[in-house]
Every structure is written in C-alpha cells, then in structure tokens.
Amino acid sequence: MKKCEVVIKGAKEQGKSSSSSSVTLKSISYGQCQKNHAAKSGGYAVDGCREFMASGEEGTREALKCAACGCHRNFHRREVDADQS
C-alpha cells in the first residue's frame, strides 16, 4: 500500500508569534474500498478491494484511480498514522 506524507505547518505555541512555526509530518495510506456498488438498486455491496494501488505516476490523473478495482481514491478508507516529529 502506497503511503504519502502530509506536512502541516502551524504556530509552536499559542503565545508565540506566527513567524515561528513547527512542522508535523503525518503518513497517510488508503485501505479498504467503501464504494457501494448496489446503491442504485437500494442494496449494499462492496467489491472487496483491500487496498488502494495507484494506476499511474504521482501527479497524473491516473494516480487517483485504483488499479485493483477502478474506483477513485476517495472511495478508499483513509488511514492516518501517528504524528512523526
């Protein structure tokens, strides 16, 4: 499962000025597909895709499409790992 890192910038302490900032890294991965394929008929059925695998290179439109099930990345469960310093 491919993981990406997100950088969040913010003030170190509330009393400090905004010019001093800290950086927090979070590792994000995408797991099980949650797309309901039977929603049109009023039912509930998922395809069983267990993890997101990008179809293309990062930065392209294909990077947001799963190679295993063909769904968009937003249908997959987002998993955020613990903060890293």
UniProtKB/TrEMBL annotation:
A Pfam family recorded for this sequence: ZF-HD_dimer
Entries under InterPro entries matching the protein: ZF_HD_homeobox_Cys/His_dimer
UniProt source species: Vitis vinifera
Occurrences of domain ZF-HD dimerization-type (ranges): 30-79
Record protein name field: ZF-HD dimerization-type domain-containing protein
NCBIfam families: ZF_HD_prot_N
GO molecular function, one term: zinc ion binding
Hydrolase is among the record's keywords: no
Keywords, comma-separated and alphabetical: Metal-binding, Zinc, Zinc-finger
Biological process according to GO: regulation of DNA-templated transcription
